[in-house]
Amino acid sequence: MNTLKIAVAGIGTVGSGLLEILLKNKSFIEKKIEKKIIISAVASRTPKKVLKKLNKGTIIFDNAKKFLDFNDYDILVELIGGEGGIAKEIIINSLNMSKNVVTANKALVAKHGIEILKIAEKNNSKIAFEAAVAGGVPVIKVLKEFLLSNRIKKVFGILNGTSNYILSKMEQTNKDFSVILKDAQNMGYAESDPSFDIDGTDTAHKLSILSMIAYGKVLDFKAVFIEGIEKIQINDIKFADTLGYKIKLLGITQKIKGKVSQFVYPCLVNKKATIASVNNVNNGIFIESDFSESLFLQGQGAGDYPTATSVISDIIDISNKKTTNLFDLKYKNLNKIENFQLMDRVGSYYLRLSTIDKPGVIAGISKQFKEHNISMKSMLQKDSGIKKGQATIVLTTHNCREKDMQNAIKKINNLDFVMKKTISYRIEMA
């Protein structure tokens, strides 16, 4: 039996899960690839812990940089993370040696995917990254294989488990963002520095990759519009519920009039919509195409075993020569498709206004809506509960242009009866 030598850089949560699956299901996996699996080397900052998980003969490095002078492997598995640094260095080094690479590093692929693609093509190397986008949810495989003959219309969904957990728990417990974030950190669902998760960057990395695969679009992370969840208040979750909605952080890429949108923002979704039922740390992704209509994928978007399972799937594909290159497109065939701008978006909106409670307030708001071609759909008005003479007005609109809505909000905020800046969220799947 031929051999498949695997080197693993980074033995954290996912790396530990990977080793456990590879060793426990070794004979099972070997039958699928008709090769004997050898873990030739690993790099870990805690080598003593790793020793217990490995068979004799595996070289253990305490620094991933040592992979730069090591070549006894067929596939490098990079699980270090980070958009640059040693992770990028060892990947490029491996590709330049005509080695194959599997990575779960969405930041690196989103930021440096084109450079990596060129190097892989030049050296006839393969790189796979199923685990980079949605952990254990095989969205890339579906796009690259199952829907290969279809034109993709839209890909959207929940791509970050941490932010989804926070929003779910805020809704379930009626607690503020800061309280739930601290709980998530204590439970290991959020990092000590959760910025990339809550500010939308992590979702944007993944969306940029999906956009490229779906549309053959040249990777352009800077083109992604990003809003996070850090400013969401419990009041808006309550009002949304009253109106029949939940608040979710969505990543949306769509082909519109020959252009491609790439939006990440928290928005209201109908409580009856499938995406609204995706809670806690789970991811949920819809893919709409011309002939397969709508597909929905759901599962854990992170964690040791789900992510490691995706990594092993890529290892098997490369071993069986099923993976062609980074995006199953040569660099020369990628398209510089124009970006669809957020200001041209057409959709409905949720607004919450803090106003003085006096006659003429609704008329003043309606006047601004009329001047900006916006039609009101529903409205709630309540005492602020903070101070007598103040009111909270919550309303939703029919479809209108983002540009018109933003201009209307600016004008409304300048009205003499408006006490605070208006809170607004887009509505998807009304």
Descriptors:
430 residues; Alpha-Beta Plaits; 3 domains; 11-stranded mixed β-sheet; 15 helices
Structure in words:
With 430 residues, the chain is α/β, with parallel strands linked by helices. The protein folds into three domains: 128 residues, Rossmann fold (3-Layer(aba) Sandwich), CATH 3.40.50; 166 residues, Dihydrodipicolinate Reductase, domain 2 (2-Layer Sandwich); 86 residues, ACT domain (Alpha-Beta Plaits). It is 36% helix and 26% strand. The protein contains 15 helices and 17 strands. Strands 7, 8, 9, 10, 11, 12, 13, 14, 15, 16 and 17 form an eleven-stranded mixed sheet that branches. Strands 3-2-1-4-5-6 form a six-stranded parallel sheet, with helices on both faces. Strand 4, helix 4 and strand 5 form a beta-alpha-beta unit. Helix 4 runs parallel beside helix 5 and helix 5 runs parallel beside helix 11. The longest helix has 17 residues. The radius of gyration is 24 Å and the shape is elongated.
CATH architecture of the largest domain: 2-Layer Sandwich
By CATH's scheme, which homologous superfamily of the largest domain applies? Dihydrodipicolinate Reductase, domain 2
* Percentage of residues in DSSP E strands: 25-35%
Question: Ranges with pLDDT <50 over ≥5 residues?
Answer: none
Task: Let me know the largest β-sheet.
Answer: 11 strands, mixed
CATH topology (level 3) name of the largest domain: Dihydrodipicolinate Reductase, domain 2
- Averaged pLDDT, please? 92
**Beginning-to-end CA distance, first to last residue:** 57 Å
Number of strands: 17
Give the overall form. Answer: elongated
SS class:
alpha/beta
**Global Rg:** 24 Å
The CATH class assignment of the largest domain is Alpha Beta
Helix proportion range: 25-40%
How many domain units? 3
The number of distinct helices, counting runs of at least 4 residues, comes to 15
